[in-house]
Amino acid sequence: MDACHKHRVTKSAIQGESMSSNTDSATPQHERRITDVEIIPVAHREPPLRNSWGAHSELAARTIVRLTTADGQVGVGETYGDEKVITALKRASSLVEGMNPYERKPLELRLQDPMVYGALETALLDLIGKTVGEPVYNLLGGKVREEVEYSGYLFYKYADTDSTSAAIAPQAVDSAEAMVAEAREFVDEHGFSTLKVKGGVLNPEEELRTLELLAEEFGRDTPLRIDPNGTWSVETASRIARRLEESDLRIQFLEDPVTTMNAHARLKQNMSLPVATNMYVVEFDQIAPAVEMGAVDIILSDHHYWSGLTGNVRMNDIAEVFDLGVGMHSNSHLGVSMAAMTHVAAAMSNVRYACDTHYPWMAEDVIAGGPLEFEDGMMPVSDDPGLGVSLDETELERMNERYHDTDPLAYSDVSSMAAEYADAETEVGRSDWLPNKPRW
Predict the structure, then answer these.
(1) CATH code, residues 11-134
(2) Which of 20, 76, 222, 265 fits 295 for a cystine, CB–CB 3.0-4.6 Å?
(3) What pTM does this model have?
(4) Catalytic residue selected from 198, 264, 343, 437
(5) What is the pLDDT of residues 148-183, one digit of tens each?
(6) Residue 329 known to be catalytic
(7) Fold of the 147-387 domain
(8) What are the domain boundaries of the chain?
(9) Would you call 6 a catalytic residue per the annotation?
């Protein structure tokens, strides 16, 4: 695979990212058309975080999309980094080259691929915003909040092999006490007031004890949530839910505690706690069945696979009609996705919960001046044109070379994710690991 997938890269494509113009109306239409499409896979450092499927390896893959117009304007996007996505993006390049950036709906209809479209649309909106001098949130209808709240996303984990290069919490976290120590680093460093535990790793009793110790450490009114990733049976989840309901913990929701949408509907009959999902309602056709079955209360959006930023806004409005809450799912993203998440969350009126993010775990980034910084658990919404970020060419090239020189963890759907995470267990000597569910 080529280091970068390109079409007629020109000097203007290299220089264009720093260019900005507020005179789009005066620009001839042919000069606004896209002449260069670059698909750039990168490998970034990632800690060995654990989940119900296995563990992250210490290198993960992402894909950067960069679009350049004839007049040198540049837009960037970011998505997952496996071969399936890269191949699909390359195939889509012929549709993007030569298009007017404003004509996005025909592209979405031709692609019939929400994830590929999402990556391209992010870059298109960034490009348009930079061209007209408007932030992306204004292209989505305007912001309804000045800053976006994020949760402290806590993981049980293996120890980092190189603790000196870790962004935060390099130690092994394999108990409730160790998780509290990890959380203390997150709160002290970034000011998070909502805490999320990635569960499905330890015995449910130990994960319940983790929630109790977090409340003791940070206050009984601290909003808490847990995500077992479908590893509990309905019976186990019902038992844990009853204990949580009887406690004085402030539990916002259980996220995907059981294995299917039908299992969630059964679970909902046994408890009053809200259920959130990013596993079983991930496309528009799944919303109606979930509502009819009474299976979920909260949809965790993700612009990577809900047909981009505008797709997330559409989903937000549909969820509001059915009185479903909206939060935001996270994956091992870099700064381009972090900026995009913040812009779309700022424009979504129905986001009732702090958004999730892996971003504090990332020790390196492809954006200039990165990583972006949290302020009291909030990410300010940039008022700069487009997404408000630009690429660091040196870091982009370095991570692209590492992608080709290594075998980073790469996935784009649940099946490939499960296989990759299970395979990563071999790095810590667990070659017989099977991501079988429910485990408890």
Answers:
(1) 3.30.390.10
(2) 265
(3) 0.91
(4) 198
(5) 999 999 999 999 999 999 999 999 999 999 999 999
(6) yes
(7) TIM Barrel (3.20.20)
(8) 11-134, 147-387
(9) no
